Amino acid sequence: MAMQIGSSDDGEEELNASINTTPLVDVMLVLLIIFLITIPVVTKNIPVKLPAEENQPLQTKPENITIAVDVEGNLFWNNQPVADEDALRNKLYEVARQVPQPEVHIRGDQETRYENVNKVVEACQRAAIQKVGFITEPAPRG
């Protein structure tokens, strides 16, 4: 007696080893719908009336220092031209020794290269200036 393994010609179908993904997709869609419905309920937001406040313009004190950088990269100390970066650093070292230390406000032209403004920021860092700010124009209301 011989036994035959494998395909047979007597009409039996071969074993199908592929996974039927239809039930998996059905379950995932049901879970997705459940999560979409329950997420807004779970994230509660406590009603709080927030204050409506506008940005107040900066009050420039006379002791504050404004350093301006124009389009060409020229430096200005309180509207007076600065010869070079070394002169700027020397002035910043003098300011850093003052008690209380004044704030330094940087006004950079929007068309100037970033490296020109970065030179001023680096000089402030090296001189140990504690408060450095950037002056900008407010956005137009519309």
Automatic annotation (TrEMBL):
Main location: membrane
Transmembrane segments: 24-42
Gene Ontology biological process: protein transport
Keyword Zinc listed: no
Molecular function terms from GO: transmembrane transporter activity
Membrane topology of the entry: Single-pass membrane protein; Single-pass type II membrane protein
Pfam family, one: ExbD
Gene Ontology annotations for the cellular component aspect, listed alphabetically: plasma membrane
Subcellular location(s) of the protein: Cell membrane
UniProt keywords, alphabetically: Cell membrane, Membrane, Protein transport, Transmembrane, Transmembrane helix, Transport
PANTHER family given in the database record: EXBD MEMBRANE COMPONENT OF PMF-DRIVEN MACROMOLECULE IMPORT SYSTEM, TOL-PAL SYSTEM PROTEIN TOLR
Homology family: Belongs to the ExbD/TolR family.
UniProt protein name: Outer membrane transport energization protein ExbD
Originating species: Panacagrimonas perspica
